[in-house]
Specification:
With 347 residues, the protein is an alpha/beta fold. The protein has 12 helices and 12 strands. Bound molecules: 2'deoxy-thymidine-5'-diphospho-alpha-D-glucose (DAU).
């Protein structure tokens, strides 16, 4: 199979590129990536010498480029997206372009060339989930941030192309994913980096928000199942069964690194912060036997170890004067100064 992997120089995308090249010796991969702040060709360094891999620098919203590429492959897997909730609150525009319009462009090309499109989506489209409940694929979408609303927009466009044109689309909705090469704006890599440097860890609100944590390799394996075996027009949830309050994840990182909990700062909350996401992934498990291979402890340890072993990778982002420095100052500057003026509180 020749697969177009859009967003393949990003975090989960590059993990999937590696999976395909390792697992399928006859497959060919073309990566299309816009190399925005969160993507880097270096994320493909370990596979770049592979003759079965081509790299194209470009955007999924570029209709003629996308049409040309989709015509040359057997299937498309779309990882290209703006992914960070906090950035969507600061500046939603780019999220509409990539997560809505970009998906629309991909769908048009998949329809014209009769190709399968796998759209990689998120559990956040279901919105806040009350304790004890788990979202199933039939639940209504109830996104509450510009990020999740844009992803839900992409999902609904997929549904409309399935119904209106019979386009072959499969949607996956995954939970919080960690592992090597995740841009260090997300909770786990950011906190590992700060803890290594004995800098404060900014926990939003009371830290009791619950997320479910999955290894990127397990997530990539589920997406591969969706591509090769998923039924056309279906949605598959990809959960892990590792629900944890954020503060427990943060304390586990500190304990593993041998750092003090005094690094924790409770800071002003993310506006509209969803308290809990939780998925039922019975469908992908019963239809195809997919289930995560790695426990929460293995997943967290492997992730932390990678950041400890690869300081050059994240120092280049963290110590530069570009995007990360600007974003960190805007997102955390006032939060951390306000927190240091108050006594530490918990719960
Ligand atoms: O659930 C899947 C989603 O997981 C993906 O669709 C998103 O693309 C991905 O960014 C992630 O979204 P979250 O908002 O859950 O991830 P994040 O790592 O930003 O935050 C995880 C939790 O930690 C969330 O409850 C907010 C909290 N948090 C995060 C940061 C960055 C903090 O308390 N402090 C922080 O500085």
């Amino acid at each position: 199979m020749h697969i177009l992997i859009t967003g393949g120089a990003g975090f989960i995308g590059s993990t999937y590129v590696q999976l395909v090249l390792e697992r399928y010796p006859d497959d060919h991969v073309t990566v299309l990536d816009a190399l925005t702040y969160a993507g880097s060709q270096h994320n493909l360094d370990h596979v770049l010498a592979e003759a079965r891999l081509d790299f194209v620098h470009g955007n999924i919203a570029d209709a003629s480029l996308v049409d040309d590429l989709v015509g040359q492959v057997d299937a498309v897997v779309n990882f290209a997206a703006e992914t960070h909730v906090d950035r969507s609150l600061l500046d939603p525009e780019a999220f509409m372009r990539s997560n809505v319009h970009g998906v629309y462009v991909l769908l048009g090309a998949a329809r014209r060339h009769s190709r399968r499109l796998v759209q990689v989506s998120t559990d956040e489209v279901y919105g806040d989930v009350p304790t004890g409940e788990h979202s199933t694929e039939r639940d209504p979408l109830s996104p509450r941030s510009p990020y999740s609303a844009a992803k839900a927009g992409g999902d609904l466009l997929c549904q409309s192309f399935v119904v209106s044109y019979g386009t072959d689309v499969v949607v996956t909705r995954g939970c919080n994913t960690i592992g090597p090469r995740q841009y260090p704006e997300k909770l786990v890599p950011l906190f590992v980096m700060n803890a290594i440097r004995d800098e404060p860890l900014p926990v939003y609100g009371d830290g009791m928000q619950v997320r479910d944590w999955l290894h990127a390799e397990d997530h990539a394996a589920a997406i591969d199942v969706a591509l090769r075996r998923g039924r056309a027009g279906e949605v598959y949830n990809v959960g892990a069964g590792n629900e944890r309050p954020n503060i427990d994840v943060v304390k586990a990182i500190l304990a593993y690194l041998g750092k003090e909990e005094s690094l924790i700062r409770y800071v002003s909350d993310r506006p509209g912060h969803d308290r809990r996401y939780a998925l039922s992934w019975e469908k992908i498990r019963t239809e195809f036997g997919w289930t995560p291979a790695q426990s929460f402890e293995q997943t967290l340890r492997h992730t932390v170890d990678w950041y400890v072993d690869n300081p050059a990778w994240w120092s280049a982002i963290r110590d530069g004067s570009g995007d990360f420095a600007r974003y960190y100052a805007q997102q955390y500057g006032w939060r951390l100064s306000a927190a240091s003026a108050m006594p530490a509180q918990e719960g």
